[in-house]
Amino acid sequence: MSDTIIIKGKETADKIKERIRLATEKLALSPFNVRPKLAVILVGHNPASEIYVHHKSIQAKAVGIETQIHRLDENVDFDTLLEVIQKLNHDESVNAIILQLPLPLHLKPFTYKAMIAIDSKKDADCFNPKNIGLTFLDRANIVPCTSHGVLQILDQYNVDVLGKHVVIVGASNIVGKPLALELINRNATVTTCNIHTKNIRSITKTADVLVVAIGHAKFFDHTYVNQDCIVIDVGINQLENKSYDPALEQRVIQEGVEAVALELAREQDLTLDQAKETLHNLTRKQFTVGDVDFEDLLGKCAMVSKVPGGVGLLTVANLLHNTLILTLLQKKLNFKDFGLERRYIRDRSDVSHK
Fold this sequence. Notes:
The structure is a single chain. Helix content is 41%, strand content 14%. The protein contains 13 helices and eleven strands. It has helices at 10-28, 47-62, 78-89, 111-117, 129-136, 145-156, 176-185, 200-204, 246-255, 257-268, 272-282, 294-297, 311-330, and strands spanning 5-7, 37-43, 66-72, 96-99, 165-169, 189-193, 209-212, 230-233, 237-240, 286-289, 303-305. The strands form three sheets. A six-stranded parallel β-sheet has the order 1-11-8-7-5-6. α1 (10-28) runs parallel beside α13 (311-330), α6 packs across α7 and α9 (246-255) crosses α10 (257-268). The longest helix is centred in the C-terminal third of the chain and has 20 residues, at 311-330. It comes from Psittacicella gerlachiana.
């Protein structure tokens, strides 16, 4: 049985964030005196969204980007949401805007209208039709965060998709469709599948690279892949932790992780890091898994990405990178002066984008 390489996104995400940090440090100095600002619109009190926005804010601060969170009531009407978006579009202090999804149930039918209402010049998620169109034409300065994260992970592991058969399961506007565009721009042979695709196993088993993004926990096991396949898991699913120990959680709250972990390490002959990992697994009500049955694929494919710790790290890093790029474009500053370039032009002999 061959070994399976476990794909992680931290190395590339850290490089992107360091590049952003160096650029924002320079931007803050004279004569620029600019600090990029990302506005986040959060509607309602979805726990997963709250955690995600908090996580974004922490990472943004670490690289020198200011976040401004606009919280709207769960029952807000669409016109009010639209007013907030338009206000931010016209606020010159705001360089980038994102609308945290999903929206509450009564606003879901208006999701597309809300997304396209964000000015393309401030569209950090790259959902505006103009920015998607530039991605289609291979002329984009910013690209969709998650789909490009998949390509960055492949680059990190020196996987060249030229001529390769890439199968994408999930044809969403956020991941599947833009990823297919970017792969085509890299001369891959792309097959997209959805819930209506017949005989899906017969398709996925032919893939050199399989990307899954359907939001169904642990759906894809080893029967969907071949031994040489590279599997990229974009799914994020929350499952109930059956090992959750509320009494242990209370101990950690009262005594601190370090003290409880030291005692656990002595009792079970563990290292301190192992004890902390055990505590982490026992004191959370839910845990995150991907669309892939990760353990089942080990030894059954060439590479597989881990959830969490894979593409998701690149999604946040690319969001921050897009915020920086949009800021430079708005201020009409030269990318190269900040250690950056107009990134996504494949044919460098074509200078018409300049």
